[in-house]
Amino acid sequence: MITENKNQDKNSGSKGLNNEVQQNRGLNLQRSPSEDSDEGIGKPVDNGGVVTSEYDVHLEKQWLAVRDDYLANFPELNDLDTRYDKNSFGTLIANLAKRRQQTSAQVQEEIMNWPSSE
Asked: Do the domain assignments include residue 95?
């Protein structure tokens, strides 16, 4: 069995890591202009401050509650296909918005505020 002498480095003159690379910079050092640029940062997504997946669940439940009344109130939507699967509810909202010549946010707000018969 081979054992190593763990005491061999205790006589070293340095106390701690012996690393020649500076790990951080002092507060008094200025950043270079390339570090200050925001070129690598993209634009943030504005989802209105609401977590999209949670909002879609509530919106979808509200849509199912008011769908018939909503469609009856807007005759221009009569021939619009309102069937969707779980992953394409956003597409349905986009199609409603396009047909009504509104934004998706406006249609979502309208559906959420629509009085339900339940």
From this structure: yes
First to last CA, the chain: 79
Pinpoint the alpha helices (H) of the chain: 33-36, 52-73, 89-100, 104-113
In this structure, is residue 3 part of a structural domain? no
Structure tokens at 62: 């509200």
Total number of domains in the chain: 1
Say how far apart CA 55 and CA 99 lie, in whole Å.
22
* Residue 70 domain boundaries: 52-113
Output the average pLDDT for the chain.
75
Tens digit of each residue's pLDDT (9 = 90 or more) over 12-68: 566 666 666 666 666 666 665 555 555 556 666 666 655 555 557 888 899 899 999
Structural domain includes residue 100? yes
